Amino acid sequence: MLPDGIHIVTGAFGFSGRYIARRLLESGAEVHTLTDSPDRENPFGGRVKAHPYSFDDPAQIVETLRGAAVLYNTYWIRFSNGGAGHAKAVANTRTLFAAARKAGVGRIIHVSITNPSEDSDLSYFRGKARVERLLHESGISHAILRPAVLFGDDDILINNIAWLLRKLPVFGVFGDGEYRLQPIFVDDLARLAVELTEVDDNRTVNAVGPETFTFRGLVEEIGRIIGKRRPILGVPPTIGYLIGAAIGKAVGDVVINWQEVRGLMDGLLCVDSPAAGETKLTEWASAHVQTLGARYASELARRENRRRPYREL
């Protein structure tokens, strides 16, 4: 049974936060959200009350969080844009956790990443590890979910692989493409997040799906499923990155950044843990073959237009 009180989800009008909010509403919870996009179309018909993050006004965040039963934190910055990078994401999360402690939040469910490390030379994984440490030091009851790659309606990575397969005659992978990843269905992540409110201990869960792919194998499977088998070419990572940058310029987005290339090739999106998710990517993709990759999903468009729903961007 869910703890009594308000359940606050960061980014409930976005991707993973939306699935968590939906699960909570289905369980009868009162749900609020902290968001950068309080004016974005509310996918829940007003059943989720929106509050701005207000990181520059910690006292306001305290008031928003005061007495909340659980905070579900999905907040992060994928890549730097206009100065808002991983260091800023860490600083903002520090403010959020400090406010949660002052507000008396009962428990935090935090979404991290597989293989975070404060010793990493990648600011993404280093920043995620620092946030985990901040949560441990907060003294608040908590659980940490560490997904590798998320898939589902409105995801970016899996959708855009399919989009590229639909548009290009060949597909390039960085190096040999034999590095592994373990995608998890976003609603399986949401289920885990809600289930972890019903336990009291602090725990960390590697939130990975039931299928493990090499990156090359993932591209092959997606191509097979959508009927767009393409030759897959291994290219030097720097060349592949430059090609990705050129495609990004053409579509007005960042298709992939160097942190993500390194994270993939260093095997950081794979762990030696039992599957926590149940839904197979291959089965989900087969059920969504008509829409998967039918249109490009733009990260920058989602940042720049904070009124329209993700499905329109």
Explain what you see.
The protein is an alpha/beta fold and 313 residues long. The protein is 39% helix and 18% strand. The protein is built from 11 helices and 13 strands. The strands form 4 sheets. A 7-stranded parallel β-sheet has the order 3-2-1-4-5-6-11, sandwiched between helices. It has a two-stranded parallel sheet with strand order 7-10. The chain starts with 5 loop residues before the first strand and ends in a 9-residue tail after the last helix.
In terms of topology, how is this protein built?
Layout: E1 6-10, H1 16-26, E2 30-35, E3 48-52, H2 58-65, E4 70-73, H3 86-103, E5 107-111, H4 123-138, E6 141-147, E7 149-151, H5 157-167, E8 171-174, E9 180-181, E10 183-185, H6 186-195, E11 203-207, E12 213-214, H7 215-226, E13 232-235, H8 237-251, H9 258-265, H10 281-287, H11 299-304
Parallel strand pairs: 1-2, 1-4, 2-3, 4-5, 5-6, 6-11, 7-10, 8-13
Antiparallel strand pairs: 9-12
Helix pairs in contact: 1-6, 2-3, 3-4, 5-7
Cross-sheet strand order for the largest sheet: 3-2-1-4-5-6-11
Compute the number of helices.
11
Helix proportion range: 25-40%
Taking the alpha carbons of the first and last residues, their distance comes to 36 Å
H and E order: EHEEHEHEHEEHEEEHEEHEHHHH
What is the residue-averaged pLDDT? 95
What percent strand? 15-25%
Low-confidence stretches: none
Round the Cα radius of gyration to an integer and report it.
Answer: 19 Å
